[in-house]
């Protein structure tokens, strides 16, 4: 097995990522018209960490307004990313974003050598009703996105019944849509994480041979579970 990538998100911009991370994503920039968050952070406040690639998160839980980015705001996102030397932007679509304009931003970012993620809820609606599928297909067709991150959790880890019912199906569906399993990233949260559900998530990454695993609010991840993740996905061959 090739080593997988590990990364995650932080709402705390002064918290450094673990040395094992390939990507750390800071946010959440939930005010999409002003490019700020409730802590008054913006893409102009890039953390000064060097142990991995740093990205900023456009969107996230509670983001507003819907239908963003606007066409006249595309340059603001690109300029903030280029001028502050971010390695990438994570588009966390939790407020019905404008997919066409996301593609325009991603395409411009790519021309500057800046990466993009598309992060989305990958639960019952995605698996059973195809919610979000068309958006992902459009982004895939534009060949502008580096990773597709599956949020398979809520305020805390799903029940084992929901994990068993949806995680593997969501992964396989996304592999089918993207045609590139290395671009598919599973994501979990430390809230409610335990030995049993972590084992299922790690097995899902390995058995489907996808790109890796991202962790929400990584400062809350216990050393024990970080070690298990690194041992399984990076050290183990």
Describe the overall structure:
The chain has 237 residues and is an alpha/beta fold. It is 36% helix and 19% strand. The protein is built from seven helices and eight strands. The chain has helices at 74-83, 99-111, 124-129, 133-142, 160-178, 195-208, 223-235, and strands at residues 5-10, 23-29, 53-59, 88-92, 115-121, 147-151, 184-188, 212-215. An eight-stranded parallel barrel has the order 1-2-3-4-5-6-7-8, surrounded by four helices. Strand 4, helix 2 and strand 5 form a beta-alpha-beta unit. The longest helix is centred in the last third of the chain and has 19 residues, at 160-178. The radius of gyration is 17 Å and the shape is globular. The termini are close together. The model has no long low-confidence stretch (mean pLDDT 97).
Question: What's the layout of helices and strands?
Answer:
Layout: E1 5-10, E2 23-29, E3 53-59, H1 74-83, E4 88-92, H2 99-111, E5 115-121, H3 124-129, H4 133-142, E6 147-151, H5 160-178, E7 184-188, H6 195-208, E8 212-215, H7 223-235
Parallel strand pairs: 1-2, 1-8, 2-3, 3-4, 4-5, 5-6, 6-7, 7-8
Helix pairs in contact: 1-2, 2-4, 5-6, 6-7
The whole-angstrom Rg is 17 Å
Helix percent reads 25-40%
Query: Please, what is the average pLDDT?
Result: 97
Name the helix and strand elements from N-terminus to C-terminus, one letter apiece: EEEHEHEHHEHEHEH
For the termini, the CA-CA separation is 5 Å
Overall form: globular
Strand content: 15-25%
Strand numbers in spatial order across the main sheet:
1-2-3-4-5-6-7-8
**Largest sheet geometry:** 8 strands, parallel, barrel
Tell me the total number of β-strands: 8
Q: Which class best fits the helix and strand makeup? A: alpha/beta
How many alpha or pi helices? Answer: 7
> Which stretches are poorly predicted, pLDDT < 50 over at least 5 residues?
none
């Amino acid at each position: 097995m090739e080593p997988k990538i590990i990364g995650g998100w932080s709402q705390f911009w002064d918290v450094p990522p673990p040395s094992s991370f390939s990507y750390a994503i800071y946010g959440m920039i939930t005010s999409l018209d002003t490019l700020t968050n409730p802590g008054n952070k913006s893409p102009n406040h890039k953390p000064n960490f060097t142990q991995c690639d740093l990205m900023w998160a456009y969107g996230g839980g509670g983001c507003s307004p819907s239908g963003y980015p606007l066409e006249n705001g595309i340059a603001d996102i690109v300029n903030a990313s280029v001028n502050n030397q971010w390695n990438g932007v994570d588009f966390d679509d939790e407020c019905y974003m404008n997919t066409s304009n996301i593609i325009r931003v991603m395409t411009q970012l790519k021309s500057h050598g800046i990466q993009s993620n598309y992060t989305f809820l990958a639960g019952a609606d995605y698996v059973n009703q195809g919610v979000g599928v068309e958006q992902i297909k459009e982004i895939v067709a534009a060949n502008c996105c580096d990773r597709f991150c599956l949020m398979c959790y809520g305020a805390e880890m799903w029940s084992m019944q929901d994990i068993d019912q949806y995680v593997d199906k969501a992964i396989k569906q996304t592999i089918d849509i993207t045609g590139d399993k290395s671009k598919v990233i599973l994501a979990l949260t430390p809230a409610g994480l335990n030995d049993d559900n972590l084992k299922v998530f790690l097995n899902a990454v390995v058995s489907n041979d996808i790109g890796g695993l991202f962790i929400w609010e990584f400062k809350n991840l216990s050393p024990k579970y970080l070690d298990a993740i690194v041992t399984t996905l990076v050290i183990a061959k």
